[in-house]
Amino acid sequence: MHLGLVGLGKMGGNMRTRMREHGVTVTGYDRNPEVSDVESLEALVAALPTDAPRVVWVMVPAGDPTRETVRALGELLGEGDLVVDGGNSRYTDDQSNAAMLAERGVGFVDCGVSGGVWGLENGYALMCGGSDADVAKVQPAFDALRPEGDSGFVHAGQQPGAGHFAKMVHNGIEYAIMQAYAEGWELLEATDLVENVTDVFDSWREGTVIRSWLLDLLVSALREDTHLDQLRGYADDSGEGRWTVEAAIDHAVPMHVIASSLFARFTSRQEDSPAMKAVAAMRNQFGGHAVHTPPPPGGDAS
């Protein structure tokens, strides 16, 4: 198989390498000429053989960059060709992109990709959506990217967006698991009873029901910085946690834990919680409870 790949960043660049190592010919394009195989999107499409459906995999940031790239490819590709969106697009974008490409006879597959910087070595978990015929056109690339073994790849559904919807829920669950580990770590750090918190987490990596790759990664981070003194307690969100909660609202699905883990990330970005200021003010008003005020210049807080 000869495939075009747009976007050669941390994920895309490693995916190009893994596919090449597993027998897939890849022509890559990136705006950074130092990593790009060709000088333009037009040159990438021109480099693909015309004796089989041309397949171009897009790995650029979600939103406008992906939409613009897919639109440009729709102008360059033709009947029977295929675009794969492997970024973190919202599933509703897939439906719009698929409809736009279909007007030109170009197929569309959405594929959620998980594996991060470790995917090159371990393989990538892939969740794709699209017709059987379109998925078959890109199956050799899926087989090259996926991990060894029976798991790690799923054709989640025939409709555009099925793959990214599955990946969205995956990321929502990821938020919740990380939050649970983080809260457990904070509690263990807060007590004098436990003398080596890192070793406690390390002991959970085998034989327990909460062992996971995320736990392995947390232990690795704690080995490097036992009390995480080098980090600020600020966590971004990529958007997929929000979309998961919004989808839960749309479908009337209770999602207490994932929603709480998303809101915890919002809390991490506040230097001083406005809501807690209001709570303190109300406690002071109804019960005369003490409040904490900021220090005056050169003085101490009260």
From TrEMBL:
Entries under Gene3D superfamilies matching the protein: N-(1-d-carboxylethyl)-l-norvaline Dehydrogenase, domain 2, NAD(P)-binding Rossmann-like Domain
UniProt keyword annotation of DNA damage present: no
UniProt superkingdom: Bacteria
Record keyword Oxidoreductase present: yes
Keywords (A to Z) from UniProt: Gluconate utilization, Oxidoreductase
Domain 6-phosphogluconate dehydrogenase C-terminal: 163-296
Xref: InterPro entries: 6-PGluconate_DH-like_C_sf, 6DGDH_YqeC, 6PGD_dom2, 6PGDH_C, 6PGDH_NADP-bd, NAD(P)-bd_dom_sf, Pgluconate_DH
Similarity comment: Belongs to the 6-phosphogluconate dehydrogenase family.
Protein name: Decarboxylating 6-phosphogluconate dehydrogenase
Lineage, highest ranks first: Bacteria, Bacillati, Actinomycetota, Actinomycetes, Propionibacteriales
